[in-house]
Amino acid sequence: MATIVRRSFESADETRPFEEGKGRLDLLNTDQGPVGRAVFEPGWQWSKHVKPIAGTDSCQAAHTGYVLSGRMKIVMDDGTEGEAGPGDFVQVAPGHDAWVVGDEPCVMLDWVGFGDYATGAASS
Length: 124
Known about the structure:
Blueprint: E1 14-17, E2 23-30, E3 33-40, H1 46-49, H2 51-54, E4 63-69, E5 71-76, E6 81-84, E7 89-92, E8 96-101, E9 106-110
């Protein structure tokens, strides 16, 4: 039997705040795996606002997602860098830092890397 699932991030299964109030991750648990919407506030940087939670030197989550608004700079451990903005699809391998560019929150959807993000698990 065909089904339709409709969920809202406004009623997320879990919300994980980032350090210093610099944003949050809203997580929906689905039959196909977790899907997250992250709101990264201006001034947010992974190495400042998630690293203390994750306990790793760089983000070890792989991300596959879509940028709804704002801009994000991503720098890989090997120095490769890029920037993503509204309408961009992104795939980012483990081993990176990232930060918000500008004074607008960066809002991203991710259907691969947010399951353990900002939890202290090794993949955060």
